[in-house]
Design a protein that fits this description.
15-stranded mixed sheet; 23 strands; LRR_dom_sf; alpha/beta; Leucine-rich repeat, LRR (right-handed beta-alpha superhelix); about 35% helix; 3 domains
Length: about 600
């Protein structure tokens, strides 16, 4: 019998990594692991002790999770607390390069966290001297509540931080006292290198004393979103901002809602060093009293370079309220220079029967704002029909708030007013152009009355030229033209087609109809039908039996006309004003053409 040999010893990854690898080799291992992302790095760290040591010694950021309990409820043998204290004692040894610390605090169930710094109490001072970034993050849903004295004990141990964030860490107001607030103010002031500050709770803001305020470069405040808490007044925020003399960026998030006058006060309180201001939750007021916007602006030397206003929480933003807001927030501000390079209103504004009269009540100053803007743009205008908001009113709104990128005006919906392209360029690019449309690209611009019938004709060409098969049908021929001038006879005939199409069908739901509506098109000697898609073929067959010529079209006449009008605006369809015509005059021409085209389309009739 052969002698049995012992099984060879297993050589593990942990053994390999323990072979006194030189520092540069350990650094290469860490770099390759880190390149795979933080999730991979965190999972790899758990593979073996040696890998964990390599990762920890090179990590520049660490996240610790801790339970936070009131001191009266602390158990001296609490495992998680003992683990935290052990980590903090060996901080400078375990993570020798880490300069960023995230301390995640568990939900305390509304109890006040008075022991916030306890896990750090026995750590050697040198363990935290290298910290430059500290994020204390409470539970996202409920946050954690603390008092100034507890926060002071923590901050006094991290005096070298340059970036501090207290995310969802709130002041418990009923536990706060003048002494407690003084301790918090002193602790903030001890951070002599702090330049970047984030505070979820506005109530920390009064704790920032002039010395600290003067050294801050960026600050973000708010977004605790706790409507039950009494928030600071606008004036308290303005006083705090005025002390920040070296500030470069200020973000005031939700929780404090600003009037137009309050927003202007913040703007005027900014130091000349500020390059960006963002305010979330400015109230438009007026009929838009429950509408809030976000204000985002850039500055240089104390003067505005750009202003972008976006919808934040809006029910309806009315034209006159947006104008009044700009008049109160922007026009009197010392930050507005002789020229404003960019004003973008990324808003959907409404105009109804009350708007025309409201426009006449606006001051002359706001009407001059557009002339001071190098670039003025409105996202979308939704205006009632011309019987309530006239063509002149729509032009006035464009002059006041900028050319809308999208226009809804009565009969015409979702008109995309894209930048102009010359028709000749479209033709050379293979886009169809003037030959397909019947317009001559070299001919003079048409008047609205001339362009409207040609636009309708072009719309019919487009509707029939593209692939069809949907619910829309176009009927023409003597069987149609003989009835166009006889509305009652035409209606009865169309209803007869619908009835014939339904013959032989099994029982249908009570409201089922083979056809929904029709529209007379006298200018085209035709009628348009909109059918149930499953019944379009049967309706077409019934119409042919009745002597009509039938064409399936890809869309409704309104949709096709809509596309042609957009093409006239952009230059993809020839016949519109030339490039030498001003934007407002081109806009007026488009509106007049829209009105003239709408007059050629009788209203649709339901069946």
């Amino acid at each position: 019998m052969s002698a049995q040999h012992p099984a060879p010893a297993r050589f593990t990854l942990n053994d390999l990594l323990n072979l006194n690898l030189p520092p540069h080799a350990r650094a290469i291992i860490y770099r390759e692991l880190a390149a795979c992302g933080n999730t991979w790095l965190a999972q790899t760290r758990l593979a073996c002790r040696s890998l964990r040591a390599i990762i920890d010694e090179h990590a520049d950021a660490v996240c610790l999770r801790a339970w936070c309990l009131d001191e009266d409820l602390l158990d001296e043998e609490d495992v998680s607390l003992a683990w935290m204290e052990a980590l903090c004692v060996s901080w400078h040894q375990r993570w020798p390069r880490a300069g960023k610390l995230t301390l995640e605090l568990e939900d305390t169930g509304e109890r006040v966290v008075s022991c916030l710094p306890r896990p750090f109490a026995i750590a050697p001072p040198e363990g935290f001297q290298r910290l430059t970034h500290l994020l204390v993050r409470g539970d996202d849903d409920n946050g954690v509540y603390t008092i100034g004295a507890s926060l002071a004990e923590l901050l006094q141990r991290v005096r070298g931080v340059q970036t501090l964030a207290l995310a969802h860490v709130f002041v418990r107001l009923r536990h706060s006292s003048p002494l407690d607030r003084a301790l918090a103010s002193s602790a903030f002031s001890s951070l002599t290198r702090l330049e970047h500050l984030t505070l979820t709770d506005y109530h920390w803001l009064p704790c920032i004393q002039p010395g600290l305020a003067a050294q801050l470069k960026t600050i973000t405040v708010g977004n605790g979103v706790d409507p039950a808490r009494k928030q600071l007044d606008e004036d308290e925020v303005v006083r705090a901002v005025a002390r920040m003399t070296a500030l470069e960026e200020l973000v005031l998030d939700e929780d404090v809602y600003y009037s137009a006058e309050g927003l202007r006060a913040v703007l005027d309180a900014l130091a000349p060093s500020v390059r960006r201001l963002r305010v979330v939750g400015a109230c438009l007021g007026g009929r838009s009293d429950f509408s809030f916007v976000a204000w985002d602006c850039t500055l240089a030397g104390g003067k505005l370079l750009s202003v972008v206003i976006t919808s934040h929480m809006s029910e309806q933003d009315y034209v006159e309220d947006v104008a009044a807001f700009l008049e109160a927030a922007l026009l009197p501000s010392r930050a507005l220079g002789p020229r404003l390079p960019r004003l973008h209103l990324d808003l959907t504004v409404d105009a109804d029967e009350e708007t025309p009269e409201a426009l006449t009540d606006l001051s002359p100053d706001i009407w001059g704002l557009a002339a001071r803007c190098d670039e003025l743009q409105l996202l979308q205008l939704i205006a009632a029909g011309s019987d309530e908001v006239s063509l002149e009113d729509v032009v006035a709104i464009a002059r006041l708030l900028g050319m809308p990128q999208c226009l809804d005006w009565g009969f015409h919906t979702r008109m995309e007013l894209s930048p102009r392209r010359h028709a000749a360029a479209v033709t050379s690019a293979g886009g169809g152009g003037s030959e397909a449309s019947g317009f001559d690209a070299n001919s003079p611009a048409l008047t609205p009355d001339q362009a409207a019938p040609r636009a309708l004709e072009r719309a019919m060409q487009r509707a029939t030229a593209e692939a069809a098969g949907g619910p829309h049908l176009l009927l023409s021929g003597p069987a149609v033209t003989s009835r166009l001038a006889l509305p009652r006879e035409l209606r009865a005939w169309v209803k007869g087609l619908s009835a014939q199409a339904a013959e032989g069908l099994p029982p249908q739901p009570p409201h089922f109809r083979p056809m929904y509506w029709f529209r007379r098109l006298p200018a085209c000697a035709a009628i348009e039908l909109w059918c149930d898609e499953s019944m379009a073929a049967a309706v077409a067959e019934a119409a042919r039996r009745a002597g009509a010529a039938v064409r399936a079209v890809c869309c409704s006449t309104c949709t096709a006309l809509h596309k042609v009008l957009q093409g006239l605006w952009s230059g993809e369809e020839a016949g519109g004003p030339g490039a030498d015509v001003g934007e407002l005059e081109r806009f007026r021409w488009l509106l007049e053409t829209m009105e003239a085209a709408a007059a050629l389309l009788p209203p649709r009739e339901s069946l």
